[in-house]
Design goal:
It is built from ten helices and six strands. With 293 residues, it is mainly α. It folds into two domains: 102 residues, no CATH class; 185 residues, Cytochrome P450 (Cytochrome p450), CATH 1.10.630.10. Bound molecules: protoporphyrin IX containing FE.
């Protein structure tokens, strides 16, 4: 789901025919970026390069077919290829870069946060109960087959709080990248102009002065909306580089929670291992038993 949604937004026409093969190669690429950089056959890093080569080959194939066709496509790739109204002509390499960046950024983030929300809700029945009530109230306003819409989404205040609290405790993006545009001094240290800096924002999320009892899952703290816009909240980054997929990501997770909560109950099977550092993951998967609600 987390990869398919942006994939379809980028390549609507091809989404059905090439998605499965594409995902296999893209998964290799993602795995490669999160592995030790040892490029010899058999390592994840090596598979990552092969995955990237195949992803590029497939994307180039789609671009060539589209250029040879007279049909106009109204998806993201269509706009990138037409490049209408833009002062700057993107090269093919830049278009490929845009597509891979969007797919990559929206994939792990959304899927891992959805998984961790399921886990935290399992461990916190009061939060689960309140969340379910919010979603059942939405369903009561609608016919059973009606999909949720933007107004329903905007009414999901507690859902948003659950997603922020999940993202705080299970920080998926550990920091943000920046480049100094001029020499600057910080706490007595001089950072020269042009340096690339990785601003490690993860620990801010566990600061007890900012978030009292920081290791407790407490979605209620986010109901005060100003918390989300504090200048120390870097869950989605900040400034002009703020995550452009922020609302899309929250919509995806909210929609998943809506249908999951209103259709099913779930319980944990066995004891699942969750690792939070250096990246959040369930190395053997999060195993749950699902039954009809
Ligand atoms: C829970 C979900 C998500 C989280 C926690 C998240 C977090 C972040 C963070 C922290 C950054 C760095 C921002 C900065 O440098 O200030 C970022 C960048 C980015 N995100 Fe997200 N993201 C999420 C979902 C998505 C989705 C769904 C998409 C698109 C489909 C997306 C696309 C991007 C892109 C393209 C960038 C790079 C922006 C740039 O460099 O200017 N993200 N995200």
């Amino acid at each position: 789901m987390a990869l398919f949604i942006p994939f379809k937004l980028i390549m609507e026409t091809e989404s059905a025919s090439i998605y499965e093969t594409f995902k296999r190669e893209f998964d290799k690429l993602v795995e490669g970026t999160l592995s030790l950089p040892i490029n010899i056959p058999g390592t994840s890093y090596h598979h990552g390069f092969q995955g990237r080569k195949n992803v590029i080959r497939m994307l180039k194939g789609v671009m060539e077919k589209r250029r040879a066709s007279s049909m106009t496509q109204d998806d993201m790739l269509g706009y990138l290829l037409r490049n209408e109204g833009s002062k700057y002509n993107l090269s093919d390499e830049e278009i490929l870069d845009q597509v891979i960046t969007i797919l990559y950024s929206g994939y792990e983030t959304v899927s891992t946060t959805s998984m961790m929300a399921v886990k935290y809700l399992l461990d916190n029945p009061r939060a689960l109960q309140q969340l379910r009530e919010e979603h059942l109230a939405i369903r009561q306003r609608k016919n059973p087959e009606d999909p949720i819409d933007w107004n329903d989404y905007k009414s999901m205040n507690f859902t948003r709080a659950v997603i922020f609290e999940t993202s705080r405790l299970a920080t998926v993006v550990n920091g943000v990248l920046r480049k100094t545009t001029k020499e600057m001094e910080l706490n007595g240290f001089v950072i020269p102009r042009g340096w690339r800096i990785y601003v490690y924002t993860r620990e801010i999320n566990y600061d007890p002065f900012l978030y009292p009892e920081p290791y407790t899952f407490n979605p209620w703290r986010w109901l005060d909306n100003s918390l989300e816009s504090h200048n120390y909240c870097f869950i989605f980054g900040g400034g002009t580089r703020l995550c452009p997929g922020k609302e899309l990501g929250i919509v995806q997770i909210s929609t998943f929670l809506h249908y999951f909560l209103t259709s099913y109950r779930w319980e944990e099977v066995g004891s699942n291992k969750i690792v939070k550092f250096p990246r959040v993951e369930a190395p053997n998967g999060l195993h749950i038993r699902v039954s009809k609600y």
